[in-house]
Every structure is written in C-alpha cells, then in structure tokens.
C-alpha cells in the first residue's frame, strides 16, 4: 500500500542516529517517513536482507511491527529480528556481518532515558555492520525533506515472541534468539575456561544492566557460561522505561554500582552498560577506571586474550578522548588514529585493517570483531586480563600509570542550555582560537588551537567543525563541543586533560589535578559567565 505523505522537518540524524522525544516518533507519519527515507536513500529495499531489533524501550515493539510491514511493502527479501524485537547494538552489528545482510535498523536512543515522556531513536547501519557514514546519513536526511509517499503492507502483526520463520506477504521474517550468536562470538575471542576458573576460585563481580538490553546477554554469558554467582547481574530485565533508571553507565547514573564498589565488602570487579549495550563502565574495588584509561589498559594487555594474541594493528580514539592510548600505541609500534566523536568514524579504519581497538571517552570501547562499540566485550576483555594477570584492577591501573604516565581526565557537561547560549559560548571561543598559540595560560604555553577537522585516511572524506581544542606544550588539553545526541536544548561538553609523567604525582584526586585546566577553560570560554550556571550538571 502506497500512502501519500509530506516531509517532516528536522529528521536529521545526530552523532548516533535520529533521536527525538518518544511522542514525536509516535506522531503521525514520523517513523514511517524516516524509515522510507532510509530505504529510498540507500537504493531501495527490493530483494534486500535487514537485521532489526532494539533496546526494549517504550514503543520498541510497535516500531518494529511498523518497520517489518514497511520492509515487506518495499520488497525486502528477509528481515532477521531478535525475539521480542530485542537486540543490543553490538549484537545487531554482528548479525549484519554474520548474515551478509544489506543493513540493519536499531531502535534505540542509547543512554537517553526511555518511556512515553522520554526519548526514542532509530539508527541505520550499513552492510559492514557499522553506523551509516556521514554521506549516507546526509542522503537519508535529504530524502526526508522531499519524501511524498511511503509503502506499508496492510497485514497483521508478526508474533515476535516465536522463534523461527514467519512471513509478511512473500517477505521472510526470521525471529532469532538475540543472545546466542553474540555469546558464541564472545566465546571465540576470550578464554572462557580461564575466566570460569577465576569465578570458581571465588572472584566476585557485579554487573548492572540498568534495566536495559544487556541484562539477558550478561546473564547468559557471565552467570550461565562463565559460572559467576547467581545475582551477579542486577537490574537484568529490560523494561520499557528502564525501571525509571537513566541507563547511562557513568559514576553519576550508575551510582548504586559505585556505592557498592566503594563500600565495605566490595566485589573484585564492577561494570555497567547502557540502554543499547554498546557502552561500558568498569570499576575495581574502591577504584574507578576512566574510559580513556580503560582503552589504554586494554590496548596494552589485549594480547593476553586469545582473539588478540597476534597483536593489534592500530588503536583509534575520538579526538576528545585522552591521549593515554596514543602512548601505548607508540610503545607497541602500531598506528594511533584520532577521529571525530561517534563510532561511524571508526568504520573505515576497522574495515581497512588499520585499527583493531577503538575507544571514546564516553564509555565506549570496541574492536574489529563488530563495527560498533561493545559494552560486554570490554567487560569480558577486562575479565580475561584479570584472569591472566591475577592482579586487582587497582594494581593493573597503577602499574599502567607508572609505566606510561597518567592522563588525568574529566568531562564536564552543561545540559539543556538554550541553544543560542550554547552557541554563544562556542562562537566566543572559536573566535579566539587563532590568537591563542604562543600565549601563556595556567602556567603553560598554548602550542596549538583549532576547530578539529578530520580527513579520513581511507576514503579521503573530510568532516569539519568537530570540536574546539586548545593544546598546551606539556600535552594538557581543553576541548569544547556540542552534543549531538540530546533531545532538549543544547548540551555543552567540556573535556579536560592533564598529563603527569610520574613517578611522582600519579595519585591525585582527578578534579584537583585538573584544577588549573578547569580555571583555564573558564578563562578561555567563559562557560559559567555566559550561561549563568554555577557548574556542570554531570562530571565524569
Ligand atoms: C555521545 C558521546 C559519543 C558517542 C555518542 C553515541 O555523543 O559523546 O562519544 O559516540 O554519544 O553513543 P554526543 O554527540 O552527545 O557527545 V551511544 O551509546 O548514545 O550510541
Ligand atoms: Co549506546
């Protein structure tokens, strides 16, 4: 059935897919226009195979039913769907690759809260399993601005609870266990017997799934296959509103886990994941591992896991992520890459075999096993390393700093600002950039200052205005950019970094160690002065 429609404004995907208030997605034609724009902008759905699933948030199932009917009416051959329309983002990426699918649609607003009054999102991934490139994303947006009709089959809903094959017209709908293939992939990368032996020896862990999609994955892998004690995984059932939790695995939102890891009788290891399972936070007994440090430690130790025994080809990080991983890459004699924020920029490096590990300061780490960041993968790599080294998280982290020095790092978020105010801060600093190199601030000399532009070394595409950065002679950095995942006003992210070579000064409190950079950032950008805010809303 062909239904006439009119373009809807603002269907512009951000850092990771299109995110809007759930009610916006539920409004007439909104989802359908966007899905049809995806099909239209990627050469049509005729004869194609797609993977479909989401993080279980409110409207997940209804959206999946709509997309299935649209895929059928657009002539798709087959859609592989996670049972209950559930699939974590990394599991979806794996399924696209494993089945040679033409793409995938992931229903998630990731770490944004879910529910009728919260957020919903749609991501489109390409045949390599990764987020659509900027060019494809632009084409989808352009199409959404001229669309005049969408196609949808006038059929009954599919029974999404039933594993196996069903049909909508002649399109096959193949419902699969969302966990099985992913669990097998993890088993192929890590030394499960060794990790199992560690758990059998009394190693204790807490995994907080935050009522989001990783619950079933973590239960099956950690408690089922690795023998972690029952109850290791908490908040394990994916709920439409994430049980009121904000499934963003950072010390602020995963505070229950933090309290436990810093309390008496803390387990040996703690971890949390986000709405769609691609992020991870890692915590040791009484010690928090910053995501930038986690990437560096994983890069330095990955060879201890069977899947990475041959060594790494290179390490890539997003620009705002601390430079800790670069030091490891240098020591290993492998390539180090710096990309704009967002996983789509790692795709070419992974496909071309230039990078094996990638990471972002926003609790994202991953490797070339899929084309998305992968929360549980990072947790399992940590477990594999812990099982091999037989040291605590704290011991491993401190030894790492002694060897490589420590990149003190923090991100300060100023959320839900009026858009004009956030732009005023950005424009103010951008205007000052050319005059900064050579000047002194915070007892250091500024060595460079620019608006980060990226030239992809594989396909030569360029991406400009990816964040303002001020770099000091001693490697300290201040970075400022606007978030591209929010659904309300604008969020300013201020990233602060200071390098300490050691051996002294490796054990300072992070905010205290960064105090000179925090002051310098205020002098440069005047965030507090311009916004009138007294401080950041979230500090990670
Ligand atoms: C944020 C993070 C970025 C991450 C993106 C998607 O984007 O900073 O590093 O790739 O979220 O992650 P932004 O534009 O708000 O800073 V997820 O877990 O939402 O798919
Ligand atoms: Co996510």
From TrEMBL:
This is phosphoglucomutase (alpha-D-glucose-1,6-bisphosphate-dependent). Its cofactor is Mg(2+). Pfam families: PGM1_C_vert_fung (PF24947), PGM_PMM_I (PF02878), PGM_PMM_II (PF02879), PGM_PMM_III (PF02880). PANTHER family: PHOSPHOGLUCOMUTASE (PTHR22573:SF2), PHOSPHOHEXOMUTASE FAMILY MEMBER (PTHR22573). The keyword Lyase does not apply. It catalyses: alpha-D-glucose 1-phosphate = alpha-D-glucose 6-phosphate. InterPro entries: A-D-PHexomutase_a/b/a-I, A-D-PHexomutase_a/b/a-I/II/III, A-D-PHexomutase_a/b/a-II, A-D-PHexomutase_a/b/a-III, A-D-PHexomutase_C_sf, A-D-PHexomutase_CS, Alpha-D-phosphohexomutase_SF, PGM. Belongs to the phosphohexose mutase family. Keywords: Isomerase, Magnesium, Metal-binding, Phosphoprotein. SUPFAM superfamilies: Phosphoglucomutase, C-terminal domain, Phosphoglucomutase, first 3 domains. It comes from Albidovulum litorale. One of its GO terms (molecular function) is phosphoglucomutase activity. Residues 11-147, 182-283, 292-404 form the Alpha-D-phosphohexomutase alpha/beta/alpha domain. Its EC number is 5.4.2.2.
């Amino acid at each position: 059935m062909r239904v006439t429609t009119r373009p809807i404004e603002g269907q512009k995907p951000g850092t990771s897919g299109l995110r809007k208030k759930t009610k916006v997605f539920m409004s007439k034609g909104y989802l359908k226009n966007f899905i049809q724009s995806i099909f239209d902008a990627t050469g049509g759905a005729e004869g194609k195979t797609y993977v479909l699933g989401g993080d279980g948030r409110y409207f997940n199932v209804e959206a999946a039913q709509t997309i299935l009917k649209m895929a059928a009416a657009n002539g798709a051959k087959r859609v592989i769907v996670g049972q209950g329309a559930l699939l974590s983002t990394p599991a979806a990426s794996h399924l696209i690759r494993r089945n040679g699918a033409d793409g995938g649609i992931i229903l998630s607003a990731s770490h944004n809260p879910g529910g009728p009054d919260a957020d919903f999102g749609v991501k489109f991934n390409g045949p390599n399993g990764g987020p659509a490139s900027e060019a494809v994303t632009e084409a989808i947006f352009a199409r959404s601005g001229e669309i005049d009709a969408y196609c949808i089959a006038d059929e009954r809903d599919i029974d999404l609870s039933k594993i196996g094959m069903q049909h909508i017209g002649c399109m096959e709908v193949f419902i699969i266990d969302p966990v099985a293939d992913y669990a097998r992939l993890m088993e192929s990368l890590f030394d499960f017997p060794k990790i199992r032996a560690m758990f059998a020896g009394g190693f204790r862990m807490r995994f907080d799934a935050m009522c989001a999609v990783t619950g079933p994955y973590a239960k099956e892998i950690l408690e089922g296959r690795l023998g972690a004690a029952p109850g290791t995984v908490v908040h394990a059932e994916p709920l439409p509103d994430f049980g009121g939790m904000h499934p963003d695995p950072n010390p602020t939102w995963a505070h229950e886990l933090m309290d436990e890891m810093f309390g008496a009788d803390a387990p040996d290891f703690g971890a949390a994941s986000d709405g769609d399972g691609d992020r991870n936070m890692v915590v040791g007994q009484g010690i928090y591992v910053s995501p930038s440090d986690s990437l560096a430690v994983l890069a330095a130790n990955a060879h201890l896991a069977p899947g990475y025994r041959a060594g790494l080809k290179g390490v890539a990080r997003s620009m705002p992520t601390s430079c800790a991983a670069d030091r490891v890459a240098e020591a290993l004699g492998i390539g180090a890459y710096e990309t704009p924020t967002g996983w789509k920029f790692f795709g070419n490096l992974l496909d071309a075999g230039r990078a094996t590990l990638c990471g972002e300061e926003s609790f994202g780490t991953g490797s070339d096993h899929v084309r998305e960041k992968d929360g549980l993968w990072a947790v399992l790599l940590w477990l594999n390393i812990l099982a091999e080294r037989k040291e605590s998280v704290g011991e491993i982290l401190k030894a790492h700093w002694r060897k490589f020095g420590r990149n003190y790092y923090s991100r300060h978020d100023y959320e839900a600002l009026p858009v004009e105010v956030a732009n005023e801060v950005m424009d103010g600093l951008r205007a000052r950039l050319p005059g900064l190199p050579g000047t002194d601030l915070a007892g250091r000399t500024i060595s460079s200052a620019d608006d980060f532009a990226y030239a992809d070394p594989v396909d030569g595409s360029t991406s400009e205005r990816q964040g303002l950065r001020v770099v000091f002679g001693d490697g300290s950095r201040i970075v400022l950019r606007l978030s591209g995942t929010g659904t309300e006003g604008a969020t300013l992210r201020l990233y602060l970094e200071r390098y300490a070579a050691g051996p002294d000064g490796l054990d300072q409190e992070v905010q205290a160690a960064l105090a000179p950079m925090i002051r310098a950032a205020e002098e440069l950008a005047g965030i507090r002065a311009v916004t009138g805010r007294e401080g950041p809303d979230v500090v990670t």
